[in-house]
Design goal:
160 residues; alpha+beta; Aminopeptidase; eight-stranded mixed sheet; 5 helices; 8 strands; GNAT_dom
């Protein structure tokens, strides 16, 4: 069931059925491997990951779909209902969709959803300093750097 619609995409909670060979292949993609911390080695492991995230009230894991094609995910974890903060991660798994404004469109829609439905006030993310295109996209949305650590920087976006 679609949770959010944007101009081009549907965002919905992932299910075990979404743990496919194609999804699993994203973790072997050279570009993805450079910048993501999570990696899965089997369909069962991926399905268990999806189920564990769905079971957590402090997590929102959404698949990004163009029509019926699963092209990526956006995850907010943890979501703190006390502080109003949510930590975000995004993966555009399908290479042909990278650099096409997917992240900006999806982050904007999901941030609005979190603000209106979970009282989220701030979104936080970590990004590799070498991922210049992602940093530029985040800055355009309004994210500001607040901390640097090793190869990473931490950014936040105030929704109020």
């Amino acid at each position: 069931m679609t949770l959010l619609k944007t101009a081009r995409f549907n965002l919905r909670t992932l299910t075990k059925a979404d743990a496919t060979i194609r999804y699993l292949s994203w973790f072997n993609d050279k570009m993805s491997k450079q910048y993501i911390a999570y990696s899965s080695t089997s369909i069962d492991e991926l399905a268990n990951y999806i189920e564990s995230k769905n079971a957590s009230t402090a997590c929102l894991l959404l698949g990004i779909f163009h029509g019926n094609e699963h092209i990526g995910n956006i995850k907010y974890e943890p979501i703190s209902y006390v502080t109003g903060e949510a930590t975000m991660g995004i993966l555009i798994g399908e290479p042909q969709w990278r650099g096409k404004g997917v992240a900006s469109e999806v982050i904007t829609a999901s941030a609005s959803y979190l603000k209106n439905n979970h009282s989220t006030k701030v979104i936080i993310l970590g990004v590799d300093t070498r991922n210049h295109s992602a940093i530029k996209s985040y800055e355009k949305l309004g994210f500001k750097t607040f901390k640097a650590k090793g190869q990473g920087i931490f950014m936040h976006w105030s929704l109020i």
